[in-house]
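Quick check before the chapter quiz. The format below is the same one you will see on the exam, so make sure you can read both the input and the output lines.
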Amino acid sequence: QVQLVESGGGLVQAGDSLRLSCVASGGRFENYVMGWFRQARGKDREFVAAINWSGGFTSYADSVKGRFTISRDNAKNTAYLQMNSLKSVDTGVYYCAADPRREAITSGRRIDYWGQGTQVTVSS
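Here is the expected output.
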C-alpha cells in the first residue's frame, strides 16, 4: 500500500550535517505520523524522531535532541530529518516509518510501513 523511499545518506566527518528525505506514495500522506529510526551494526533499531501530520507534534530521542530536526512537506509527500553536529555514534542505517497511530511511531511497536533504509556513516 504505502511505499517509503529514503535518500540523503552518505559518509561525513564528525561535526558535519546531512539531511535525509523520505518520499511516500500509495496513500494519503496526511493520514500518517512519520518517524525516523536508526540501527547501528550489531544493535537494535532505535527511535530517533517523529512528527504528526501538521507538524504540531514532534518527538526526539534524548541522544539527538538539539542536533536533529524532523519536518515534513505534505504537498511533496516528503518527510525530512536534518542532522547537525553529527557524531560517530550516529552512524547506522536510518529508516523512515509511517503509521496512523502516534504511539506506534514513538514506541516503535507494530509500525505499518517502513522504508528500505539509507546508510549514514560519520567518521572521526
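If your answer matched, good. The mean pLDDT is 95.
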